[in-house]
Amino acid sequence: MKKITLLFTLLVQLSFAQIPAGYYNTATGSGYTLKTQLYNIINNNTNSSGVSSYSDLWTLFTTTAYRDYYYENDGSLLDVYSEIPSGTDSYEYTSTAEQCGGSTPSTEGSCYNREHTMPQSVFSSSYPMYSDAHFVLPTDNRVNAWRDNYPYGIVTTSITAVPISNSAANNANTTPCYTSNGSKLGQNSNSGYASGYTGVVFEPIDEFKGDIARALLYFATRYQDQIPSWSYEMFNGTGDQVFTDTFLNILISWHLLDPVSSYETAKNNAVYNFQGNRNPYIDHPEYVCQIWSSQCAVLNTESFALNSISIYPNPSTNGTFTIESDTQLTKVTIYTINGQIAQEIKNPQGTTFQVNNLAKGFYLVQLETELASTIQKVIVN
Fold first, then answer.
1. Domain boundaries, the chain
2. Beta bridge partners of 91
3. Could you tell me if 143 and 183 are in contact, meaning their C-beta atoms sit under 8 angstroms apart?
4. Residues 309, 43: Cα–Cα separation, whole Å
5. Distance (Å, rounded) from C-alpha 111 to C-alpha 138?
6. DSSP secondary structure, 62-105, as one string
7. What mean pLDDT is predicted for residues 205-217?
8. Cβ neighbours of residue 229 under 8 Å, at least 6 residues apart?
9. Mean residue pLDDT across the chain
10. Which of 15, 148, 316, 340 fits a disulfide with 166 by CB distance 3.0 to 4.6 angstroms?
């Protein structure tokens, strides 16, 4: 999901993450015991109204960690709702004068604000949640309004209506409401790992699904002592599992399919300097399945099917090879050694199909199903 160059550098980036020595020494358990141990470690953020206030987030968003040095590499604000990873962004924010709050503009690209990935209405805009930068992100104000307070999920392509509660948004629609870069609002698919919920959801693009998931899993850990007293569609009423089976499956799937990026690592370090605590699921992605192990076991069952995928002939002598899979693939992306996309095949028909017209070289082929992802090497002579 992240650009393939990040797959090469991920281990290096993570090895140099600025985790204080001994920070996770007491994280020795498993299951919800580990989750509580992490809660005790990160239960010290200093972002209160008297220390680091909500307005201080504007300054944090101007730091290098929140700038685009990963895609266009132009230093503009990296907005996970409007970024177009494979092309030129429709609009960019480069100045603090483009910050805004209050009323929502009628078009995208007018200004950016502070998006609570866990809606602030859930906790009545109380501190320290209100200004907790681990789950508050800079996003386009208009897209933020579209998302409103809806949970995250997988939008179906066939819906009857989309009720928009935000007064700044349009009336009901008969198709998903797409933003300029592919994020969308609509009815949850209620299928696959998103089964069990039929309401309206907001779906970010694949590139940032893991980012959103890890932000919400952080929230579930940092505020586990208060969450049982709050009401939200994503919650199951407990402080241990926190999320309903449906939404936990969605978040864990996104976490597994979209690994930690160097952008997240840099942001985690910046937030630590800002408020004194870290997101453990960025520092240690393995904690997710150590805590919610039964859900991970179910979601990972499909990953074994990817081991049976065949790519032949390999090496290829004419720029053509065949992909054969017992599992229906949702996307095949072929990257050059430099991380550029050579070809992308979405929802390939059938379980056997050909890839053609590749120049000589070394390629990485990313194969994705709804629940899993794997990468194989191919050589074209």
1. 4-300, 309-380
2. none
3. yes
4. 44
5. 10
6. TSGGGB--SSS-S--B--TTT--TTS--S----SGGGB--SSPP
7. 95
8. none
9. 85
10. 148
Which CATH superfamily groups domain 309-380?
Macroglobulin (MG2) domain (2.60.40.1930)
One DSSP character per residue, 145-172 reads HHHTTPPB--B-S--S-B---STTS-S-
CB crowding 283-310: b at 16 or more within 10 Å, else e = bbbebbbbbbeebbeebeebeebbeebe
Residue that is written with structure tokens 């199909």 in the block? 353
- Report how far residue 155's alpha carbon sits from residue 143's, in angstroms, rounded to the nearest whole number: 16
Q: Are 138 and 100 in contact (CB under 8 A)?
A: no
Indicate whether 168 pLDDT > 80: no
Give the whole-angstrom CA distance, residue 336 versus residue 342: 6
Q: Is the dihedral of CA 59, 48, 213, 100 positive or negative?
A: negative
Distance CA 164, CA 186 (A): 10
d(CA 16, CA 375): 24
Phi, psi for 185 (deg, rounded to 5): -120, 135
Measured distance CA(211)–CA(219) in Å, rounded: 13
Q: Is the C-alpha dihedral spanning 123, 57, 234, 289 positive or negative?
A: negative
Tokens at residue 54, please?
Answer: 């909500």
The predicted pLDDT at position 105 comes to 80
Rounded Cα gap, residues 359 and 342, in angstroms: 9
**Contact in structure between 203 and 154 (CB atoms under 8 Å):** yes
Residue with tokens 């939200």: 232
pLDDT digits (tens, 9 = 90+) for 272-323: 999 999 999 999 999 999 999 999 887 766 554 555 678 889 898 888 999 8
- Confidence at residue 368, expressed as pLDDT on a 0 to 100 scale: 80
- Tell me the mean pLDDT in the region 45-61: 83
Distance between CA atoms of residues 185 and 148, nearest Å: 10
CB half-sphere exposure, 165, CA atoms < 13 A: 7
- 201 to 117, 163, 191: CA distances (angstroms): 12, 11, 14
Question: Which residue type, as a one-letter code, is found at position 276?
Answer: G
